[in-house]
Amino acid sequence: MDELVDILDEAGNYTGTTAFKSEAHLKGLFHPTVHVWCYTKNGKILLQQRGANKETYPLKWDVSVAGHIGAGEEITQGAVREVLEEIGVVLKVSDLEKIDVHKTEKRHSNTIWDREFNHTFLTALEETTVLIKQEEEVEALAWISLASFENMIFNDNTGLVPNSKKRYERIIAAVRSRI
Predict the structure, then answer these.
(1) I need a surface site. Which of 2, 57, 81, 94 has the fewest CB within 10 A?
(2) In order of start, what are the domains of the chain with their CATH numbers?
(3) Where is the Nudix hydrolase domain positioned along the sequence (predicted)?
């Protein structure tokens, strides 16, 4: 779905302009996004398998929830919205713990040049929380142990969306410090 997003400068400051997400990706315009990592107090993390029709990394395992922030939308409100849309869980802003803002630049194709400031959050859930996946975006959801996640990263990362190992390590360390 094409939506309006705020355009940021190279330092992550709002420029006061907006563009459709497709235009931002085509021209490589910086814009804000969110990642929300869901974990349990007993050391599991929720992974999302991207939908088969996704333009980038179809069927790869990824962060629990990811998405674009709509134009004029607060970052935390966008994170709460994305969690509801992608996994059907109602959160409050106070359920989110911000751990990072990460600048990313990745050219996937001639029409997709991701240049984003990614706001990363953690949220604790119960493993028994009812999850309702967004059919057009999400192929599957799976709770896995942190040890299994580490194994995916360091031994067989072919099933994961390619991110730096350091970025994944920061997530694991952040979750471990909270369980």
Answers:
(1) 94
(2) 4-176 (3.90.79.10)
(3) 29-173
